[in-house]
Amino acid sequence: MMSAIEVENLVKVYKGGVRAVDGISFSIKEQEIFGFLGPNGAGKSTTIKCVIGLLRPTAGTIKVLGVDIQRDPGVVKRNIGYAAQETAVDDRLTGWENLYLQGRFYHLSRAEIRRRGEEVLKLFGLWERRKDTADTYSGGMLKRLDIACALIHRPKILFLDEPTLGLDVQTRKTIWEYIEHLRAEHKMTIFLTTHYMEEADMLSDRVAIIDRGKIMALDRPGALKAAIGGDLVTVRFSAEDGLDGLLSALRALPGVREVRELRDGIHRIVVERDGDRLIPEVVRLAQEHGIGIHSVRLKRPTLDDVYLHYTGREIREAEGSREELIRTRVMSRRIRR
Description:
Blueprint: E1 3-13, E2 19-29, E3 33-37, H1 44-51, E4 59-64, E5 67-68, H2 73-78, E6 80-83, H3 95-105, H4 110-123, H5 139-151, E7 157-161, H6 169-186, E8 189-194, H7 197-203, E9 206-211, E10 214-219, H8 221-227, E11 231-237, H9 243-251, E12 256-263, E13 266-271, H10 275-288, E14 293-299, H11 303-311, H12 319-336
Helix pairs in contact: 3-4, 3-5
């Protein structure tokens, strides 16, 4: 199976010297759902805009369906669909009018738009609301309409930049079902950027973790989780005096791969397997060193743990503010109109 997208040594430096993307390389196979996982400001949106031709790279090469995006952007753009973080839907138009306008941008005939428009609106559960103006739609409906508009010309590759940002959990899972359906029924390649761990884990065949413009890891979600260990034991100790000796003793235990401090006396112990059997040993060694334990937690690795492992920090630090910003922009736009 050939590559749908090939990126080599991509660099993007903005005015002022901000290096948003720092020499990344990756390829995406046809009919693959490829997850680009990272926090706000990591370089996800910059990468996707370079790949689809909205931004000119500072350096590097990008091929989409075998075509160099800088040499022949028109061919590339006719074969891709793009739904940005913020919906491009016009609130003053009906759902059908938004779809029709997008179809005309791609020079589709009226008959083609009628046929394809009915197909995608029914796919996304919007057919009954097609004559209502978009300002009466919920946030989830607006996002579904936005994705439907990106599909009207039947692209071979669909780019989704934070497709469920700011949506509630139920609506988010509904969008996931639509994405999986698109790949299964239409043999579509999907490039998905997200900072939701569960979303990347649920949808992606492979995940690239990007942080500060660099790809830190790239593999199947299961392989990434397996690579950092079988079980994770998180312990919060009550004191710091004598902790170095205790940590050395913990690192010497059979099956322990890593002991890392996270924050505020909380340490994570990576165990090859049987993490539940390690807990009594942790308690025993803590007692021997005269250190109390506030809490102990055992779990299997998640993509949160993978991200923490490769970057040394958690991804959630900016989620709330970003989602609130999106909601504020949507509301202010509607008030102006």
